[in-house]
Design a protein that fits this description.
The complex is a heterodimer of chains A (about 625) and B (about 120). Chain A has 24 helices and two strands. The longest helix of chain A is centred in the first third of the chain and has 32 residues. Chain A is an all-alpha fold. Chain B is elongated. Chain B is built from four helices and no strands. Chain B has one domain: Helix Hairpins (Orthogonal Bundle), CATH 1.10.287. The N and C termini of chain B lie far apart (about 50 Å). Chain B is about 75% helix and about 0% strand. The chains are: A mainly alpha (about 625), B mainly alpha (about 120). Chains A and B meet through helix 5, helix 6 and helix 24 of A and helix 1, helix 2, helix 3 and helix 4 of B.
Chain lengths: ~625, ~120
């Protein structure tokens, strides 16, 4: 890399946060002086610019991490004083996914709200800036600040339609549980600082390397991991997620489902790799068992609950939970191959889930309902959106050649190499179940298949309000004049709402067809999880072993078997969806739905219950941490 | 001293959690969140505390100033206070909205209105 090139890219690093943050401040202060269109276009331009900057970073940091020291406070003699950004291709890629989804959400907003005030755009841009900060930072306390900034803007965005009780309830549950999670993170940061005297991830890791974990380290781990897993919505910390996603405005759901919870997992793995992985006694294999267990539990619970929903946004929320479990399985294998598979899945599924949320938004906008049963056969006239939703459901089932199929292939291969071939079956089961739920909804809404009132209703769907935007008249009256979503009108859906989901799916297809994307993902993941190379890049040669050559494991060639597995999975999704719609299988459905009644009752939506689970989860995590680290 | 401080941290956090779990009033719940939050501030200050240390202000010091308490944890605690104030303000605003729409501050009643 030439000197000139280096100077220019090192200016790009802070710019990728400063640009959206500065624009958000200006937007909040001066948007009232701008016409509405100008506001919208400026916000979109800023989001696109941020995406471009992070894409440049992703390309520039491939091969070696880029370190940026704020105000030039470089480490001296192996001692870190300043705050750094440690940019790698994985973090920058995550940030650019956030930028892309923010751009899509803002385009969608052009017609979704009657008049989106500057405040909404400002919040979205702060959310974006904080996400980028989260992905790039190399400082533990900065990670906490970004965590809280993402969270607080997300609380406000969830409650954007404050005229309705459901968003209020969702926002309160979300805010209380995630604030408590934030406190856990901060206490974990405090304990690590008390032990090591540093807030820099590399330096903390260096100070802990080779030492045996004692009680303080275990507590710090449990607090940090627990706090981040609240955001990552891993069972039993996941209860807030369906309440928040089910009631937030659609463009906000896109940001949430695509990046927010994934950031929590990102932080868990980042902190594990840089801080805890060097502990003496080789804690890796035991920690792998803990993370895989949590991942499997989350994937199963999410998939089963998704199938039991008829409220479309809650269904997609549980699909998200299930996917988070699968990502945790991939990342929890603690191998570059597994992490690479999870990363590609995050991108592929994130794009597809966002497209699905946007498609549901079109239906809500045009038909004023998000209840699968109430909308039976109501899809006529929304054919393009129907195709989008059906295709999105199949992409979630790893339809080749979309990029999620590549991620699935890598993940399965990684599990095989780790000696866990049965993991493939668990993953397939969860993916098929959750995707079939979405496809069932598409079949009912656009083809009019299945019974109009689902039999599951009888056996108690108390956590299913079913229809959040019932009678359009009362709703419009209940909401403030400026921020109401347009009630359903029998007009053609605007192109700015129909096209963004298709564009997102097309990007997923394009990435899937890019040759060598698996190799890129594997080398990015290898760079991400190599602690020695990270320490050497941040602290310099004083910090320990000199820049170790990152060994990139060979990624598997695209095999016919892999493609056949994916196609089999897609076929299974079609079958399960058909069974779910078939009138003759009503009895089977009733038995199954009675069998999971207890699980549904656990999702009570009461914030007290959710905090109880959080406390119990923390205790369990501390016990598991004790076993794994010592 | 030190044991007492850590005991206070654990007590504040757990009693805050207990309050949130059992709360029947949103304002009460928000205050309980703040109580739990204050545990983190006490923890940070305790971590940075040095017995007999002076305030971390390094201008016009005497010849042998002795140890100072850690300025870093104070900065962290200050940031945490700002975060806590933001969250509290937001939650209280939500509570006001709930009272306006549902006519109650009972978090459980809110769920009933949802159905």
């Amino acid at each position: 890399m030439t000197g000139v090139n280096f100077v220019s890219t090192s200016a790009v690093i802070p710019a990728s946060v400063v640009v959206p943050l500065g624009a958000a401040a200006l937007m909040a202060g001066f948007s009232r002086f701008l016409p509405r269109r100008a506001r919208d276009l400026i916000a979109i331009a800023v989001a696109v610019a941020t995406t471009t900057l992070t894409l440049i970073l992703m390309a520039a940091s491939a091969g070696h991490p880029m370190i940026y020291w704020f105000s030039g406070w470089r480490p001296a003699a192996g001692m870190v004083i300043g705050i750094d950004y440690a940019v790698g291709p994985l973090g920058a890629g995550m940030a650019s996914l956030a930028g892309l989804l923010a751009s899509a959400a803002l385009v969608y907003c052009l017609r979704y709200f009657d008049s989106a005030r500057g405040r909404h755009h400002a919040l979205v841009l702060i959310f974006l800036a904080a996400s980028v900060d989260f992905c790039l930072t190399g400082d533990l306390f900065n990670l906490f600040v970004a965590f809280e900034l993402v969270a607080v803007t997300a609380f406000a965005l969830t409650a954007y339609n404050a005229g309705h009780p459901a968003p209020l309830q969702g926002a309160i549950n979300f805010a209380v549980t995630n604030s408590l999670g934030g406190m856990c993170v901060l206490m974990g940061v405090g304990f690590l600082y008390a032990r090591t005297g540093s807030l820099n991830l590399a330096q903390i890791g260096q100070a802990l390397a080779g030492h045996h974990a004692d009680g303080l380290i275990v507590v710090a781990f449990a607090l940090l991991a627990g706090g981040f897993l609240v955001k990552a919505a891993v069972v039993p910390f996941h209860f807030w997620l369906p309440d928040a996603y089910g009631s937030a405005p659609i463009p906000v759901c896109v940001l949430f489902a695509g990046v927010m919870s994934e950031l929590g997992l990102f932080a868990v793995i980042r902190v594990w790799d840089t801080v805890f992985s060097g502990l003496a006694g080789d804690p890796g294999p035991r920690m792998r068992a803990v993370l895989l267990g949590l991942g499997i539990l989350t994937a199963l619970v999410g998939a089963v609950m998704a199938l039991a929903q008829i409220h479309l946004k809650r269904m997609l929320a549980f699909v998200t939970v299930s996917h988070l479990g699968i990502y945790l399985i991939g990342a929890g294998l603690l191998t570059p191959l597994g992490l690479a598979g999870a990363s590609l899945l995050v991108i592929g599924d994130g794009l597809a889930k966002s497209a699905l949320f946007l498609g549901v938004g079109v239906v809500q906008h045009q038909r004023a309902s998000v209840s699968e049963t109430k909308l039976r056969g109501a899809g006529r006239g929304l054919a393009v959106t129907g195709v989008t939703v059906a295709l999105g459901a199949l992409v979630l089932a790893d339809l080749p050649p979309f990029v999620s199929a590549a991620g699935h292939g890598l993940l399965v291969d990684a599990a095989d190499r780790a000696g866990l071939p049965w993991m493939e079956i668990v993953i397939a089961l969860c993916v098929v179940t959750s995707s079939a739920a979405v496809l069932r909804a598409a079949g009912r809404i656009w083809l009019g298949w299945g019974a109009s009132e689902s039999p599951e209703r009888d056996s108690g769907t108390e956590d299913d309000p079913g229809d959040e935007s019932n009678p359009a008249g009362t709703e419009a009256a209940a909401r403030g004049p400026g921020e109401r979503e347009r009630p359903g009108r029998r007009k053609r859906a605007p192109l700015t709402m129909v096209l963004p989901p298709l564009a997102l799916l097309a990007i997923g297809l394009g990435l899937g067809l890019t040759s060598g994307i698996e190799e890129h993902a594997v080398s990015a993941a290898a760079a991400f999880s190599d602690r020695a190379a990270y320490v050497a890049a941040v602290i310099g040669p004083h910090g320990g072993s000199a820049a170790a050559r990152i060994s990139v494991p060979a990624s598997p060639p695209v095999s016919v078997g892999g493609v056949l597995t994916d196609l089999g999975q897609v076929l299974a999704v079609l079958c399960v969806a058909a069974i779910a719609l078939d009138r003759r299988a009503a009895r089977l459905r009733r038995v199954l739905s009675a069998g999971i009644g207890w699980l549904r009752r656990l999702h009570s939506g009461l914030v007290g219950d959710q905090v109880t689970w959080l406390a119990a989860g923390l205790a369990v995590l501390a016990a598991l941490g004790l076993v794994a680290l010592r | 001293m030190s044991v007492l401080a850590y005991g206070v941290v654990a007590w504040l956090f757990l009693i805050g959690l207990y309050g949130v779990v059992t709360s029947r009033n949103l304002i009460h719940m928000v205050v309980c969140v703040s109580v739990a939050q204050s545990a983190t501030d006490v923890l940070l200050l305790e971590i940075g505390y040095r017995a007999g240390g002076h305030a971390p202000v390094f201008v016009s010091l005497p010849a042998h100033p002795g140890p100072a308490v850690d300025a870093v944890t104070q900065a962290l605690a200050l940031t945490d206070v700002v975060v806590g104030a933001t969250v509290t303000a937001l939650l209280l605003a939500l509570a006001v909205q709930v009272h306006k729409r549902a006519g109650t501050l009972d978090p459980d009643a809110l769920r009933a209105t949802k159905e």
